[in-house]
Structures
1.
Amino acid sequence: MKADLTLEQAANVACLPGIYKYSITLPDGHQGYGFPIGGVAAIDADEGVISPGGIGYDINCLPKGTRILTKYGYAIPIEKIKLGDELTIIDEVGKFRKVSNVVALLGRKSEKLIRITTRAGYEIRVTEDHPILTKNGMVEAENIGIGALVAIYPFEGVEYEEPEEFVILSGEEFSENIKKELRKRNLIPLTSRNSKLQIILKLLGYALGKQ
C-alpha cells in the first residue's frame, strides 16, 4: 500500500466536496483510478460530487512489451501508449471492432502474472484480475481453466517504426485561400510524421485499389 498511490488517493478523497466525515481505506486496499480500490466514502447527495473512480472497477493490467493494436493497423508496446492515442478494441460481448481514445494511463506493480496459451499458439500474460472474453462472457484470468474457450483476435498488425522526418508537401504550391484551409486542418506542411498522413494513405489505398 505504501509503494503506490493508495494513501495519497485516500487523502484526496477526504478533500472532495460534500464528503461525510471520513475517507476510509480497508487493509487490503490498493491503488485505483482516483479512489483507492477498497476505499469507502459517503458523499452528500446535494453538495457532493459523482466520481467514476469511486463506483467500483478495479485495475486490470498487461505487462511491459504487450503489443497493442492501434486504429491504423500497426501495433505498439503498451508502455509507449500516450493519452489521446486511438486504439482498436472489441466490445465486451466480442461482437464489434471499434476505435477508442486513451483517456487515462496508470501502472502498478504485480507480484504475479498469468500466462494463457491457446491450442492455436496465441499467448498472453496478464494479471490475475484481467478480464478474458470467453463464450460465457468476461472471466477473470485466474478463473480460466485448461480447455476453456477464449476469444482471440488473429490480426496482430505490423510493428510501428518512427519514420525519419521529411517534408512531403510544403503547401507553397497552393493559393492563399487553399493554404489557409489546409493549415486549419493541420495538413500543411505535410511531413512524414504528420498524424493526418495515415488517414491520407488509407484513402489513397482505397482510391487506387478500385482502379
Note: The chain has three domains: 6-54, 67-159, 167-209.
2.
Amino acid sequence: MTWVGLLWVVEIVDLSSGFQLDGYGILPRKVDGLMGIFWSPLLHADFAHLIANSGPLVLLLIMLFSHRQYRPKSSLAFIWLVSGLGTWLIGRPAIHIGASSIVYGLAAFLMTASFWMRSWRAFFLSILALLMFGGLFYGLFHIQKGVSWEGHLSGALAGVWVAWLMHARHA
C-alpha cells in the first residue's frame, strides 16, 4: 500500500509544482518514450484519474500479496514492465499515463492464476477478483478519448502471461 501512497505524493507534487510530470509517460514507438515504461504507472492526469485507480489497486495488491505462491514482487514487476512495453509497441501516438495497466494486469493475473496453480486459495482469490473486477474488461473494448485501451489490453495480457509463466516454470 506504500506504492499507492507514492502515487498520491507524485500527483500532489505534479499538480502543485508545475513540473508537468505527465510528459514522462509512455510515448509509443519513440526511443525517448521508453523511459515512460518506468514512470507511467506513477503518473495520473488528475485526482479523479488517481482516485479511479487507487481503490482497485489497494484491493488487488492485498489479494496479490496474500498468497506467497504468486511471487508478488516478481509478478508486479513483470506486469509493470511488460504492460508498459506493450503500450509502447501498440499505443496511439500520444502520451500514456496511469496505473490502470497495472490494475488490468493484476486483475487478469488473479483471475487466471488458479487455472494453472491448482490451489484452493488461488481459486478463491480468482473468483473474488472476477466478482469484484470482472467489469473492468469492458474497458478493453470501450474505446474512449483520453483512455489508453492499449495500456488496459497490454496489462491484461501481461497478467495472463505471468500467471502462465509461473505454471510453466513449476510444471
Note: The longest helix spans residues 149-170.
